[in-house]
Amino acid sequence: MKVKPAHNLGGFAEGAESLDGPAFADFQLRLAAANHQRLKPGLPDEASMAERDAELEASEAELRYLATVRSEIAPLVRDIPGDVDEFIAWFEGLQTSGPGQGDPLFPWLATEATLGELRWFLTQEVAGEAGFDDLLAMTQVKMPKQAKLEMARNFWDEMGRGHPGGMHGPMLERLSSHLGVDPLPGTVVPESLALANAMVAMAMHRSYAFHSIGALGVIEMTAPGRAALVNEGLKRLGVPARKRQYFAVHAVLDIKHSESWNREGLRPLVAEDPRRAQAIGEGAIIRLWHGQRCFARYRKELFGAAVQDAAA
Fold first, then answer.
1. pLDDT band at residue 255 under the 50/70/90 scheme
2. DSSP per-residue letters across 242-310
3. Which one of 102, 198, 219, 251 is least enclosed by Cβ atoms within 10 Å?
4. How far apart are CA 6 and CA 23, in angstroms?
5. 200-214 in b/e burial notation, b at 16+ Cβ within 10 A?
6. DSSP E strands: which ranges in the chain?
7. Where are the domains of the chain?
8. How far apart, in whole angstroms, are the C-alpha atoms of residue 276 and residue 232?
């Protein structure tokens, strides 16, 4: 998403403890701008002291936001088991019982949405896409060997196994370009920005590294069904196969990714230290909770509050 540079971020923490309303929207927009700036590669002489101070302020503010979300989702994460077999069963159960699963938005996108409505939806999705490959790269730092290897295999797939045409990020860019999707601050709902901001925050802060693993893993597990329905909608509306490759690939590949992620990543991590189960589980719920809020907002924008209320 194109954002204005975040040069003057005084009072950044204002809104970090809000989950709706103008303060929430303003905070998420400012944090998205800060992330755009601080994740962009640069040179030491290009960064002013004010920008460094702003980065530190944004970092502290996003930690306050994560604390707010953790407090909100506390009822959903009270009974995460520490036993490795029980935890894997709990985690895999999120595929059907987790927040936002089975949302009616996606069958509607597959069968009824117009091209304009799908374009609006994809505008939100592109803005909320924090870059799975980059999140993986940040999260895997200093992880135990077996989990790191699993993340490396996943990363290699994201990179098209060394072929530029197979890289997943550019696949989404091709679809966006084909449909004229160009997220701008005024066209993106704050719930979508919050999803991306939360994912970046968990990957950036090492105290949330295991939360990030849970969030990334639950994406792999829950995304295929939604991706398949979006692909059906794009196909129905005549979008060429190569342009919708991003959703076609994720409808299939992520199923294999999820199975190996749970087996080679989550299982050994929890077996080594059962305390990680709580963090991994919280991260998964944080990701699903943000997704659920996005889907509800999308439904409200696309086909009205009455349908949203009926689906709630």
1. confident
2. TTTHHHHHHHHHHHHHHHHIIIIIIHHHHHH-TTHHHHHHHHHHHHHHHHHHHHHHHHHHHH-HHHHHH
3. 102
4. 17
5. bbbbbbeebbbbbbb
6. none
7. 81-311
8. 38
3-state class (DSSP) for residue 196: helix
Question: pLDDT tens, 103-119?
Answer: 999 999 999 999 999 99
d(Cα 70, Cα 264) in Å, to the nearest integer? 27
pLDDT in tens, 116-134: 999 999 999 888 777 899 9
Q: Phi/psi of residue 255, each to 5°? A: -65, -45
Residue 225 CB coordination number (10 Å): 16
**Residues 30, 63: contact at Cβ < 8 Å?**
no
∠ CA 78-81-86, nearest 5°, is 145
Q: Quick check: 12 and 50 in contact, CB under 8 A?
A: no
Nearest to 107 by CA among 228, 219, 247: 228
Q: Measured between alpha carbons, how far is residue 214 from residues 91, 245, 287 in Å?
A: 9, 26, 8
The total of other beta-carbon atoms located within 10 Å of residue 99's CB is 20
CA distance linking residue 285 with residue 206, whole number of Å? 18
- Between CA 181 and CA 175 the distance in angstroms is 8
98, amino acid identity: G
Displacement of CA 228 from its chain's centroid (Å): 18
